[in-house]
Amino acid sequence: MQFGIFTIGDVTTDPTNGTTPTEHERIQAMTDYALKAEEVGLDVFATGEHHNPPFVPGSPTTHLGYIAAKTKNLQLTTSTTLITTNDPVKIAEDFSFLQHLAGGRVDLMMGRGNTGPVYPWFGKDIRKGIPLAVENYHLLRKLWREDVVNWEGEFRTPLRGFTLAPRPMDDTPPFVWHGSIRSPEIAEQAAYYGDGFFHNNIFWNFEHTAQMVNLYRRRFEHYGHGAANQATVGLGGQVFMGSSEAEAKKQFRPYFDNAPVYGHGPSLEEFTKMTPLTVGTPEQVIERTLTFADWVGDYQRQLFLVDHAGLPRDVVLEQIEILGKEVVPVLRKEFEARRPADVPSDPPTHASLVAEGPNSFHHLVEPAKARMANQEVRS
């Protein structure tokens, strides 16, 4: 099972001392967190994509390319890549290039984005978010898998005789996750293509998370990709740890209370009860995280948000150290002890996809059609 951290790259004033990092300082800190994640044995670093203040991750592949040059083992991904406002051609080019730079240590998460004003900045209509996500992703798959693309759709100028350059590394497109917290259409999309489904459940109750993941699992099986429990699932979460629960809450409370996203709403205690946010000792984080599989089934990737709401750089680095040294080793052991033999431990990687060979379903634009046709022949 893969464990890692993700950032949304917010520039937030520290409520305890009134200091605000510069954009440069925030970008440098995010880089430091990625390097720390590799140092302490975490598997994954993910960065969001935003094009409006107070966020800085406007160019995720630039950042991940820099991190790739400074790491050897870390899997690099996004949380998320905006499939709606980005041009699929540019996404295809950027991530193919990043694959080569990182030696294949790349996957990506597709998302619609929920910041309304950003859509018209890129000539898009947020009311068409779902159709944009569906059409753009289908084109992206063609760009990575067909040598010459001829295509016409609703939201982009047609392509005539287009060939992507560079091609994906080893002619193997990166594995894709679809991130959604509320849209069943996106869970359906992930299931149709046999891709991963990531539920970033930091703001949602467990019942809602289970409902979304179980929808994806059922449809994954429907399209012939495997049994429902074999579908590729990832979860988000947020933790803050201290020497005692009381100490952790005392230190984290001012950041929670003033967080730009969930501050000034439910209390810290209410929020930790309703959602996966865990504030306490490393042992409490371990105990709480292990219950996630009781809701969604055995899954393959767990990412933690650790740097939101103005937390100081040194505090975040300490949190990553605790995750890597005290929490994740126990979680690995316990999750694998309960995992059935037929359920994959890890999501697909570049190496595993290359090993499947050029005739694998991963190389098809619409693998569901081929799988369901095979089922009809056998029946």
Automatic annotation (TrEMBL):
Gene3D superfamilies referenced in this protein's UniProt entry, alphabetically: Luciferase-like domain
Domain Luciferase-like residue range list: 1-297
GO cellular component: cytosol
CDD domains: Flavin_utilizing_monoxygenases
Sorted UniProt keywords: Monooxygenase, Oxidoreductase
A GO molecular-function annotation: monooxygenase activity
Protein name: LLM class flavin-dependent oxidoreductase
